[in-house]
Amino acid sequence: MKSLNVMFILLLVFLIIGCAPKEEKAQKTLNGAGATFPYPLYASWANEYYKNFKIKVNYQSIGSGGGIRQIIEKTIDFGATDMPLKPEELEKNNLIQFPTVIGGVVLVVNLPEIPSNSLVLDGTTVCKIYLGEIKNWNAPEIKALNPGLNLPSKSITPIYRSDGSGTTAIFTYYLTQVCSKWAKEVGFGTLVNWKVSLGAKGNEGVANYVKRTPYTIGYVEYVYALQNKLNCVKMKNSEGNIVTPNEVSFKEAASFAEFDPKKHFYTWITNTSGKNAWPIVGATYILLAKEKHEINKEVVKFFDWAFKNGDQIAKNLYYVPLPEEIKEKVRTLWKSYNLY
Length: 340
What we know:
Elements: H1 2-26, E1 29-34, H2 39-53, E2 56-61, H3 64-72, E3 78-81, H4 87-93, E4 95-109, E5 120-122, H5 123-131, H6 140-145, E6 157-161, H7 166-178, H8 180-185, E7 198-200, H9 202-212, E8 216-221, H10 222-227, E9 231-232, E10 234-236, E11 242-243, H11 247-254, E12 269-270, E13 280-289, H12 293-309, H13 311-316, E14 320-321, H14 324-336
């Protein structure tokens, strides 16, 4: 009888231990943080993923700088950044990097006197505005680009991202390409030393500031402009054509992206040569800590599901899904780390 009781207890312990991993998996939460650029998309993907698999993906939009810092510190399961890290940075910090989607950065203005989405700017003019060299909305350079508009004689208030921001990195990288003075005096990155401007936190913060403050200009990811019904600027691109920000112009720019797995997909998609390409476009990336192997497998499952099932959600939010050949290159990368 005593031996039967011992066997029963051992069997009960075995069953409890055997069931524990399944219970843990059912309640699993993946914690990510970083770029505000893809937040609307990741939130939508996470919502659908939970409906299907009851696995929560908790993503905090704290800015690319925060996402990079926290994944290096291993305090999250995945980081997100719109500023791709160079191969040497990834190796130094023992990280894996892959792109997830492409989107457009747009300039938005609050100009009550002019029709919505009618203002035209070019890279040089935008550069001079953010350098503080063009101070008024009726400056000759702006009037020359907008001969049919009655521009107000008001001071320009430029708004920038005060937090470490991949959107800032994309925007300032573009300015280094079109403005030698910007390249020399300011440069690009998630944080730069702005000559003028007022700071706001997150794409949300910039969008809200421009929305409530007349005569401001700011830069945000396109979906934030749409959600806040902001006045978007048209831009003259590298081919000298005036283009409107939309899925078509973003997609044409994205077709020039060179995603090379050997370079950890490091690339920039600004100021491309497409005839109707939007000039300020970028990819957003996920960062994984190599040593978190089992967690990384779960993160990869989520993004692989999104690659297979989330393209329409991305399009509905005006992002450009990765081409299938790039998705396959990402999967090959995952396989090389035994994550897929």
